[in-house]
């Protein structure tokens, strides 16, 4: 592990002894990190942009350094500049769970480093992916038609945006095969004003004209869910203008507010209009492993595709997004490749809706992806459905507690009723001027985040600035939610006092 | 670690003690795997598709199981069904390097599990990415104009296909901003018959009409490189028909044969026609850290974008693809998003070509990606440029040795002169009938792969079936290349004897 120039024979990059020793050192480093993670400010201090760039050398080192030196630099230069997503007091965005089992799966994925891009390039890896996506689908209560065992099937992608791009391309190519490519100008896609912004990005990526992206307004009356009536009206207008409704994105658990679009109503409307229905359950899909949340997916058998991210709230380290489709052929028609240099590794299937051997290169944007299946499989094996449901329910319970505390405190209000583990609230709703209330809440949020004791983010709905508390960290327990409520109350007092309110 | 149902309080998914213990068990498992990897058949036995699916339960387990049970299942059910990409005798496709340093970096990435999708969501992670892509660019001899330090910049994506999709979208949107979206039907993209198939997939994904995808023929005369004359002729034809040349993909080190497109000539042609030039150096880019290979990138200052994959031959576990662009703004114009719920984490930059703070969500398809920078950074720190050059050179030396052995043996011929570490050869070129020669080579390749002692793949060029030996595994040393040559000679004798030749 010296720092002298290495020749190739001394490099031995996978020498088992060196591998063991150095890997254990990293394990120790991370265990210490988890032990101390709540000692760091949750959100990175407001560093000056470019700070790390100034500290680090301008070029890669000529000579290698011992691992201890590298870890010391991580400790000294990098950790202070991170936002600690694994802190138990991280309540921002949505959670991004790490776990011991997810990490074990990551290690197996990275260590074996196989690439099941065609079935034969690692049959067990491709098959394990088929198995775990079916397992996950069953846990969520998805219909057989979305599982391999029922003629559909799934894939583990890296992100919802990729899932959206792939299914948009599938829908687009299905439509254009009928209409001719020049009709790409007539294709229209629909989402609500609460739909994740990556849907718009995905639609642009696949060449849908930006003018054909419909953002349909939602309101408090429907809990910010997209109504079938609103979709119908928008589609009618477009059809009257000679446009072609292509794709409707429904969200179960929106990013801003955790709102739920009514899947059955929207699915019926999509069927009537020949639109592809995608259900994005990136965050809330994890909750659907608990029967008490499966109603939110009622009507999902009408969907052409469904996605959810185990890397959010399902103890599965980044990255992992389950995508299920009712028609694998629609997906692979848009994404397949068949060059000569892949042809020698004979693949089965081909003509049937349930291919005997799945070539995942035709189910995703890239040719190859990491062995994500083993990660999700280890999580499922290690914790079991029972353990994972307990994980979800403890956060829902804590969020319920927080929602109630906010409701009871007359200085605060809950802005949108909580459905999962996200609580959207604000300070002192009865203050006369909305702008002033917004400013108070901005100050409150800044004060909380600057304290380093917790990190939350905000949203704006109906012009109101709202604070979001997303419960779901791997280490987050009831006590952390109680602590953050105490912190909020204290900071609220300070803010109100400062304004002599 | 018991198998009893867990409640949330006993799950403790990031308990430092449990994390340490279980992670060490996985490290031991992998060290043992590396110790024994050459005992497995390199390519997975020809299993019956669906075999693993039949062995595993149909649904996820209700109750968790101890880690030992999970690892035992990996050993028993999964390892036998894998193709062992880390075997020293894996010579198929291109290498997919794992290494102790790459693994350490993966562990840090997975363990910290931060998401630098906007700068402020983990400033040090975003900045480290800026630093390492600049380091890598300098190692490869890229011009300042492609680095952050010179007004360009880079990102670590997951795959070349993603890099191609993003740059195609950037080129498309730049053109359509001028022409109007309806002119998407007039946009034409160019590649050679040796270009990786994911380019065609990428072009389809971004909505380029399939009829506007030009595959330009190459030949032995140019070493299967794309000539500027051929591009010019194709572009002239298209322009005469009122079409708009959009994007030209040049490859340095093609997948089939390791051919090199002349970047300077193609760059000049692209400039004249206002086309985006992308240089795909996925595999051979790693070699360019050695000065003796940098000539293959001559003219790269004319490129709008360049990509290479450290996850291939650069000791960086899957996945990691460096993408550099000359104009970050062209990229981010096509890929940016700016929703309210990301707005509170104030970002700098914005108007300038070198933003103070880089929001990587606007540089890629997904909103967020893993902390890949720390992985590549650990590889660079741990091995240094000296160690990495030695890694590359030992494989080039071994490939040279193999090429010479093939040349000297009159039963074989080298089909295309070797440029890097890929040797393309075949058995007994002077056999009269081409079909018969192809059959002999097919038999030879099958015999080698079925032996389990090595794994190679094939290619077809000018109608000839060619065997590819891609040297570059993390454990592959000269002795393994000598062994595979001995194996090939033995199997060739058997094949020839069987045919009484």
TrEMBL record, chains A, B:
GO cellular component: cytoplasm
Keyword vocabulary terms for this entry: Decarboxylase, Lyase, Pyridoxal phosphate
InterPro entries the UniProt entry points to: Aromatic_deC (IPR010977), PyrdxlP-dep_de-COase (IPR002129), PyrdxlP-dep_Trfase (IPR015424), PyrdxlP-dep_Trfase_major (IPR015421), PyrdxlP-dep_Trfase_small (IPR015422)
One Pfam family cited in the UniProt record for this chain: Pyridoxal_deC
Domain of life, per lineage: Eukaryota
GO BP of this protein: amino acid metabolic process; carboxylic acid metabolic process
Gene3D superfamilies noted in UniProt: Aspartate Aminotransferase, domain 1, dopa decarboxylase, N-terminal domain, Type I PLP-dependent aspartate aminotransferase-like (Major domain)
Claim: Metal-binding is one of the keywords in the record: no
Molecular function as annotated in GO: carboxy-lyase activity; pyridoxal phosphate binding
Modified positions (N6-(pyridoxal phosphate)lysine) in chain numbering: 312
Cofactor(s) of this protein: pyridoxal 5'-phosphate
Family under the similarity heading: Belongs to the group II decarboxylase family.
Protein name: Uncharacterized protein
UniProt source species: Panicum virgatum
């Amino acid at each position: 592990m010296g720092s002298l120039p290495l020749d190739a024979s001394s490099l031995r990059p996978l020498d088992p002894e060196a591998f063991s020793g150095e890997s254990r050192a990293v394990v120790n480093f991370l265990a210490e990190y988890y032990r101390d993670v709540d000692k760091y400010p949750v959100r990175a201090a407001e560093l000056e942009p470019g700070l790390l760039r100034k500290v680090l050398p301008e070029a890669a080192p000529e000579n290698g350094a011992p691992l201890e030196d590298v870890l010391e630099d991580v400790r000294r230069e990098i950790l202070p500049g991170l936002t600690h997503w694994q802190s138990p007091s991280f309540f921002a965005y949505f959670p991004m769970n790490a776990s011991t089992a997810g990490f074990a799966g990551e290690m197996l994925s990275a260590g074996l480093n196989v690439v099941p891009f065609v079935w034969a390039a690692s049959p067990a890896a491709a098959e394990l992916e088929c198995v775990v996506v079916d397992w996950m689908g069953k846990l969520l209560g998805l219909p057989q038609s979305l599982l391999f065992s029922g003629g559909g099937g799934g894939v583990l992608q890296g992100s919802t945006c990729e899932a959206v791009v792939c299914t948009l391309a599938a829908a687009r190519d299905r439509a254009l095969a009928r209409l001719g490519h020049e009709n790409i100008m007539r294709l229209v896609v629909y989402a609500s004003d609460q739909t994740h912004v990556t849907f718009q990005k995905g639609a642009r990526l696949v060449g849908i004209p930006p003018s054909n992206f419909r953002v349909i307004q939602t309101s408090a009356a429907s809990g910010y869910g997209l109504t079938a009536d609103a979709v119908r009206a928008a589609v009618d207008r477009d059809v009257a203008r000679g446009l072609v409704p292509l794709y409707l994105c429904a969200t179960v658990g929106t990013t801003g507010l955790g709102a739920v679009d009514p899947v059955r109503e929207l699915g019926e409307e999509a069927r009537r209009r020949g639109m592809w229905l995608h259900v994005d359950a990136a965050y809330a899909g994890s909750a659907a492993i608990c029967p008490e949340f499966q109603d939110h997916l009622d009507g999902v058998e009408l969907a052409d595709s469904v996605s959810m991210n185990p890397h959010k709230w399902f103890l599965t380290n980044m990255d992992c997004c389950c995508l299920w489709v009712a028609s694998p052929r629609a997906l692979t028609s848009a994404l397949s490749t068949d060059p000569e240099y892949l042809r020698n590794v004979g693949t089965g299937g081909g003509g049937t809706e349930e291919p005997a051997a799945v070539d995942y290169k035709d189910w995703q944007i890239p040719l190859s992806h990491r062995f994500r299946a083993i990660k999700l499989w280890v999580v499922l094996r290690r914790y079991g459905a029972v353990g994972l449901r307990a994980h979800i329910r403890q956060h829902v319970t804590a969020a319920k507690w927080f929602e109630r505390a906010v409701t009871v405190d007359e200085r605060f209000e809950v802005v949108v009723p909580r459905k999962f583990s996200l609580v959207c609230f604000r300070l002192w709703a009865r203050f006369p001027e909305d702008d002033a209330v917004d400013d108070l809440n901005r100050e409150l949020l800044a004060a909380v985040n600057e304290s380093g004791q917790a990190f939350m983010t905000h949203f704006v709905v109906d012009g109101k600035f709202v604070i979001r508390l997303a419960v779901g960290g791997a280490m987050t327990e009831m006590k952390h939610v109680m602590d953050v409520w105490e912190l909020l109350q204290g900071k609220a007092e300070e803010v109100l006092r400062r304004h002599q309110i």
